[in-house]
């Protein structure tokens, strides 16, 4: 039986006239079980689709490594899991089960070997239209409507050149809320913004695979993670009192993801935010609520945050507010809130700085990336500082004084961009 527990980190004390309450809600799941089995909580059958880019830009080596990566992934999919394979170029093509199949098939020794044989069909040919891949994946998932947990891996090495931005948007919207999708970009010719749009909408992650030889390791890691998610779908429900406003809800660990726009209204005072499937893991969420100011000495429940699986509450956390004239209390900043606020600013500074650099705005890029160096230094984020050093020369880290490097590897810029949304949790 899966169990959820919560911790709250906040400074509940507000000054006279104060309105905004910020809290980090840490959620831990244990006993999740395995995908398709579950831990007795929110379990149900699982389905997995591999979407492999087979456009012309993949080339012979990319296709060879893609075949190998897909083979490794297939060996990690648990027997009994529904699965399929899609080849993607200017169209999405179902490779396995064979053309004419009426539905996905369950993994077993026979279907695994058939699938491994089918990926020998991969050929580098055609363009890139990722929207068609997502649409095909949804069509395939629809053949097993009883499945409650649907996950896909999408690999691409290029830009979405063979469909319009609107077509990609429609495909993403059609898939949103229907299946989760992790996106991986191979090499340095794909667009992070495109991949991030897909992953963000579909509750997945985006990352860089620097070379074809690294694909197999990444596919293995992703499938193992997917197979470990035994709780199919969890909602974060946030209640706020009459007259209050939920400013935002953001996942801040292990990755930064603003889920505010994904809200659905449960009742006039409660909104639900989807968090996808869970394994045995811990995630942190930043919840911000604006309250009407109250008199000094008054206390109020600012928010009730609940973990809900199939409309059943598994755990809850209480966010409180107390108005005080004690400056020592009201000016204290909770370490957890401060750290994650800083990491969100760091991610924005990196992404904005790289975007400015790509647009030829060297002054803007220098300013933004300098601020990123300043934040990384102040928070002791040595890993991010090391990545930033590959893009800028640092004159004064504390002041954020930097110069753009004249020669920068594209892969180093992309690695910095994709790493910007990965956070490092701090201890209580």
TrEMBL record:
Q: Which InterPro entries match?
A: VWA_3_C, VWF_A, vWFA_dom_sf
Domain of life (superkingdom): Bacteria
Residue intervals of the VWFA domain: 47-231
Q: Which Pfam families match?
A: VWA_3, VWA_3_C
- Protein's name according to its UniProt entry: VWA domain-containing protein
What species is this protein from? Candidatus Phosphoribacter hodrii
């Amino acid at each position: 039986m899966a169990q959820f527990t919560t911790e709250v980190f906040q400074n509940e004390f507000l000054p006279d006239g104060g309105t905004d309450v910020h809290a980090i809600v840490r959620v831990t799941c244990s006993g999740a079980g395995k995908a398709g089995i579950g831990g007795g909580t929110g379990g149900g059958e699982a389905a997995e689709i591999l979407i492999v880019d087979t456009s012309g830009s993949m080339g012979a080596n990319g296709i060879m490594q893609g075949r190998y990566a897909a083979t490794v992934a297939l060996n990690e999919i648990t027997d009994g899991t529904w699965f399929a394979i899609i080849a993607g170029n200017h169209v999405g093509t179902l490779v396995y089960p064979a053309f004419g199949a009426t539905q996905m098939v369950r993994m077993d020794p026979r279907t695994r070997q058939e699938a491994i044989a089918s990926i020998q069909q991969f050929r580098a040919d055609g363009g890139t239209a990722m929207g068609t891949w997502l649409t095909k994946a949804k069509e395939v998932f629809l053949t097993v409507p009883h499945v409650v947990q649907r996950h896909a891996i999408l690999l691409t090495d290029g830009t979405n050149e063979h469909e319009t931005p609107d077509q990609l948007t429609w495909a993403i919207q059609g898939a949103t809320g229907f299946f989760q999708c992790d996106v991986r970009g191979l090499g340095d010719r794909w667009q992070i913004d495109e991949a991030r749009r897909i992953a963000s909408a579909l509750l997945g992650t985006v990352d860089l695979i620097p070379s074809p030889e690294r694909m197999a390791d990444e596919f293995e890691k992703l499938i193992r993670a997917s197979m470990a998610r035994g709780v199919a779908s969890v909602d974060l429900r946030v209640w706020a009192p009459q007259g209050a406003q939920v400013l935002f809800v953001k996942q801040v660990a292990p990755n930064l993801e603003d889920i505010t726009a994904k809200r659905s209204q449960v009742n006039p005072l409660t909104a639900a935010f989807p968090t996808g499937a869970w394994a045995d893991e811990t995630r942190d969420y930043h919840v911000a609520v604006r309250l009407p100011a109250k008199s000094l000495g008054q206390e109020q429940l600012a928010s009730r945050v609940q973990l809900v699986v199939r409309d059943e509450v598994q755990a809850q956390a209480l966010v409180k507010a107390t108005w005080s004239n004690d400056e020592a209390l009201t000016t204290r900043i909770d370490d957890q809130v401060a750290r994650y606020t800083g990491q969100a600013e760091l991610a924005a500074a990196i992404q904005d700085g790289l975007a400015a650099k790509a647009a030829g705005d060297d002054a803007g890029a220098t300013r933004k990336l300098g601020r990123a160096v300043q934040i990384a230094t102040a928070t002791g984020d040595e890993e991010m500082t090391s990545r930033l050093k590959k893009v800028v020369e640092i004159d004064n880290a504390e002041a954020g004084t930097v110069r753009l490097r004249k020669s920068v590897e594209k892969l180093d810029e992309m690695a910095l961009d994709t790493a910007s949304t990965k956070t490092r949790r701090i201890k209580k």
